[in-house]
């Protein structure tokens, strides 16, 4: 029997993440933890140049996410204090 608070390995994230990674990401809703502005990801202001992109809140410039393309990999940073994205799954 597994204890209810025992950690599980990362494989248990496959199902929930496959729901949000299969949808149009720019439609995801974001709420800025700094100024409380909310809106779709498409309204964020993105600074480059590539391969590193930084998306910021259009009201207060707080960083929402960082995206870096490296060869055949994509790094996505959603650090602490970057707010939360809400994805529609249905
Ligand atoms: Zn903001």
Element pattern in H and E: HEEEEEEE
List the bound ligands: zinc ion
Strand content: 25-35%
Tally of individual helices: 1
Q: Low-confidence stretches at least 5 residues in length (pLDDT < 50)?
A: none
Name the average pLDDT.
84
Protein topology:
Blueprint: H1 14-20, E1 29-31, E2 38-40, E3 45-47, E4 52-56, E5 63-70, E6 73-77, E7 84-86
Antiparallel strand pairs: 1-2, 1-7, 3-4, 4-5, 5-6
The protein binds zinc ion.
What would you say this structure looks like, in words?
The protein is mainly beta and 90 residues long. The protein has one helix and seven strands; from the N terminus they run H-E-E-E-E-E-E-E. The protein has a four-stranded antiparallel sheet with strand order 3-4-5-6, with no helix packed on it. It is globular and about 45 Å long. The mean pLDDT is 84. It binds zinc ion (ZN). The site of zinc ion (ZN) has 8 residues, from loops. Residues 32, 34-35, 37, 57, 59-60, 62 line the site of zinc ion (ZN).
What labels would you give this structure?
four-stranded antiparallel sheet; mainly beta; globular; about 10% helix; binds zinc ion; single chain; three-stranded antiparallel sheet; about 90 residues
């Amino acid at each position: 029997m597994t204890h209810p608070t025992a950690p599980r390995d990362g494989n248990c994230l496959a199902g929930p993440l496959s729901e949000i990674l299969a949808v149009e990401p720019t439609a995801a809703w974001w709420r800025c933890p700094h100024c409380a502005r909310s809106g779709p990801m498409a309204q964020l202001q993105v600074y480059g140049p590539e391969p590193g992109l930084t998306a910021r809140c259009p009201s207060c410039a707080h960083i929402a996410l960082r995206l870096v393309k490296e060869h055949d990999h994509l790094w996505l940073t959603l650090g602490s204090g970057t707010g939360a994205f809400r994805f529609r799954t249905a």
